[in-house]
Design brief:
mainly alpha; 17 helices
Length: 418
């Protein structure tokens, strides 16, 4: 471990300088030789580093989601070229290039944090041995050696002997109890973070080997940290425990606010969004409107959670719009009724008997007002009976009765038989 830590000795000076600056702040509050001053300095170092790594964390989340989405295609390539490893690798690289996915992006936060971790380990190791390092002079080294966190010096390890722990002003029992508790908390936080990711923020509709690998890592990583933790100084355990707690909180925020499509977390998020829209009658917040807009734009490609959300909006009397807003169902009904009223209604289709009797009734209806008008003009009394209508020719009656069309007949072709 010392050999590995020495490789990152170029960063020990910046790390030691940051710790000293925080120690000045907390030393004024809790005392320069207390464990609170040195412990909080290490915690503040973690927070500062993780804030600087937020852009890399965002890339990590995007990379992990892209990898999940590409798993079916990657599996198809593996099955298609299972006997040709070179062609399989070429197709994989082509797939990564076409989709803009970098498999190493998911490891960026860990890789970027590694120099700080090993530099801190190197600093604490020199403090345990009473040696100056970076900007830590002998006075600060002696102060850090005497600082204790719940009775355990920050430079002590679980595997230290009685003589070495006694030189730091503590007992083996105190050191081992504190380090064991911190190792358990560190491993438990690592396990919970990975378990939370697998159970809530993974698309359950896609069953791929990638999910099986992540599930295995969920159990392997805590064991690795537990085994390595017994060789870490208390200060490094404080660093790593703070890092895991920060990662857990960051992961919880991402799961609640930006879940993976198709996951249980997305279902919970959309149900909360549905309750908010139902209660306020609108989509509040630009980020939420962007979510609704993306769901509307998918159309038939929506997953089960998104279809359930759209159905819930319809049931509550709302309809999602392309701009991410929602409109009440009453407005849509009024617009639909207004459009229908402006259309010309088509008459109902009449039967053959109605079509045949229609012209005769219309003719008699026209003759009656005409006769009445002419009588009024001639000054005849109102009770004068109108003349009976002329009888229909027998041929015409038979024609109407037989169902033939009345009116002028179409002339027959000369070549047809009479």
């Amino acid at each position: 471990m010392d050999t590995i830590a020495s490789l990152f000795s170029f960063i020990t000076t910046p790390v030691s300088w940051i710790i000293v600056q925080f120690h000045k702040l907390y030393g004024a509050l809790f005392g320069p030789d207390t464990g609170w001053a040195w412990g909080l300095s290490i915690v503040s170092l973690v927070v500062l580093i993780r804030i600087c790594l937020i852009p890399l964390f965002v890339k990590q989340i995007k990379s992990m989601r892209n990898m999940q989405a590409l798993q079916p295609k990657m599996k198809a390539i593996q099955e298609r070229y299972k006997n040709d490893r070179q062609r399989q690798s070429e197709e994989m690289m082509k797939l990564y290039k076409d989709t803009g996915t970098n498999p190493l992006s998911s490891c960026l936060p860990i890789l970027a944090q590694s120099p700080f971790f090993f530099a801190l380990y190197h600093v604490l190791s020199n403090i345990a041995n009473g040696k100056t390092i970076g900007v830590l002079n002998q006075t600060l080294v002696d102060s850090a050696r005497e600082a204790q966190i719940f009775g355990a010096p920050i430079a002590a390890k679980f595997t230290d002997t009685q003589d070495k722990v006694a030189a730091l002003g503590a007992t083996v029992m105190d050191v081992r109890v504190i380090t064991a508790v911190m190792i358990i908390l560190m491993s438990a936080s690592q396990f919970y973070t990975q378990r939370q990711l697998m159970q809530k923020n993974v698309d359950l509709s896609v069953k791929t080997p990638y999910m099986q690998q992540q599930k295995m890592l969920m159990y392997i990583f805590p064991v690795i940290f537990a085994v390595m933790g017994i060789n870490f100084p208390v200060g490094v355990l404080v660093y790593w425990l703070t890092t895991n707690v920060w990662t857990m909180g960051q992961q919880m925020y991402v799961i609640n606010q930006n879940p993976t499509p198709g996951s249980k977390a997305q279902d919970s998020y959309l149900q909360r969004l549905l309750k908010s829209v139902t209660a306020h009658g609108e989509v509040r917040g630009r980020r939420k409107r962007n979510v609704v807009q993306a769901i509307v734009a998918k159309g038939a490609d929506r997953n089960e959670n998104e279809r359930r959300f759209i159905a819930g909006l319809s049931k509550a009397g709302f309809a999602a719009q392309a701009d991410g807003s929602v409109v009440k169902g009453d407005t849509l009904t009024a617009e639909a009724e207004g459009g229908a009223a402006g259309r010309r209604q088509q008459p109902k289709r009449q039967s053959k008997a109605q079509r045949q009797s229609g012209p005769a009734q219309a003719g008699s209806a026209q003759q009656e007002p005409t006769s009445k008008t002419s009588l009024e003009k001639q000054g005849e009394p109102q009770d004068a009976k109108p003349k009976p209508a002329a009888k229909t020719a027998p041929g015409s009656a038979r024609q109407a009765k037989s169902g033939q069309r009345k009116g002028q007949q179409r002339p027959k072709h000369p070549s047809s038989k009479k």
